[in-house]
Amino acid sequence: MIDVEVARTFLAVIETGTFQGAADKVHVTQSTVSARIRTLEDRLGQRVFARSKAGARLTSHGYHFERYARTIVRAWEQGRQQAGIPETFDDMLILGGQYNLWARFLSQALVEMQEQMTNVAFKAEAGTPLSLSRLLSEGLLDIAVLHQPRLRTDIAVEHLMDDDLIMVTTDPKGEFEDRYVYVDWGEEYRDRHAQILPKLMEPRTTVALGFFGPSFLIASEAAGYLPRRLVETHLAKGFLFEVPDVPTIAYPVFAAYQSESDTDAIQPALQILREKAAATLAGNLAPHFWA
């Protein structure tokens, strides 16, 4: 039988492309990584990596083993999580989401889950699309809600909604070009932005963490693209103003989850996410707590 740490190390070599990168990722020495891969190859009777000065790439045998390695690691993590469920609950759900999606949308969805799924314990995580996708593939998340999922054969992906990114400004008259801050929402957004507002592609300030956008724009008397969901309350209170005649940019939101998970809590949680997505599109989310 393949040890879980051997499988984890094998996957780390795939993700980093080198034995040294894998050593850094799993916090062991490079010689330990080499020994684990050698053990794996001895047990399989096949080479799983072709080594060169440029790094390590999968052989055909390694490619076919990858899915099983992910199953080994996922089964271990799910078993460890199930063993840690408090005695008063029957199941556990680990929900991850991009930072900006926790504002109003995921936070309210989690409240609904706690109210409706009374036999389930919960753990919430926040991160980047890359980190969330990695945690999901390793079995450390049950559901990841994000804008740019990484497609894998063992991961199911469902489109929940489109976040409408709208141009908002602190100027009541709607002026924005003299105070524009570029909020970087990802590659697809950059392409769309370049098409509709090419003159604003080289602003003085660029920020990558959109979840703190409203506070930053208000404090700096600036303008920028933010999700309507994130700024509805600020608009209603007069802290921000929507700029007229500037295109809205649709930014898809997806739920990615383990397609072969044994966790019964996934499907009811997905249904709640669907309902919250519908409420978001209808403008029926509860306002910010301070409103």
Question: Please, could you describe this protein's structure?
Answer:
This protein is of the alpha/beta class and 291 residues long. The protein has 3 domains: 4-82, Arc Repressor Mutant, subunit A (Orthogonal Bundle); 88-161 and 252-281, D-Maltodextrin-Binding Protein, domain 2, CATH 3.40.190.10; 162-251, D-Maltodextrin-Binding Protein, domain 2 (3-Layer(aba) Sandwich). It is built from 10 helices and 11 strands. Strands 3, 4, 5, 6, 9, 10 and 11 form a 7-stranded mixed beta sheet that branches. It has a two-stranded antiparallel ribbon with strand order 1-2. Strands 7-8 form a two-stranded parallel sheet. The radius of gyration is 22 Å and the shape is globular. The mean pLDDT is 88.
Topology overview:
Blueprint (H helix, E strand, L loop, with lengths): L3 H13 L2 H8 L3 H15 L4 E4 L2 E4 L1 H24 L7 E8 H18 L3 E8 L1 H9 L5 E4 L8 E15 L11 E3 L3 H10 L8 E3 L5 H8 L2 E5 H10 L3 E2 L6 E10 L7 H16 L10
Parallel strand pairs: 3-4, 3-5, 7-8
Antiparallel strand pairs: 1-2, 5-11, 6-9, 6-10, 6-11
Helix pairs in contact: 1-2, 1-3, 1-4, 2-3, 5-10
Please tell me what the overall shape is: globular
The fold-level CATH name of the largest domain is: D-Maltodextrin-Binding Protein, domain 2
Weakly predicted, low-confidence segments: none
Number of helices: 10
Domain HTH lysR-type: 2-59
InterPro entries: LTTR, LysR_HTH_N, LysR_subst-bd, WH-like_DNA-bd_sf, WH_DNA-bd_sf
Family: Belongs to the LysR transcriptional regulatory family.
GO molecular function: DNA binding; DNA-binding transcription factor activity
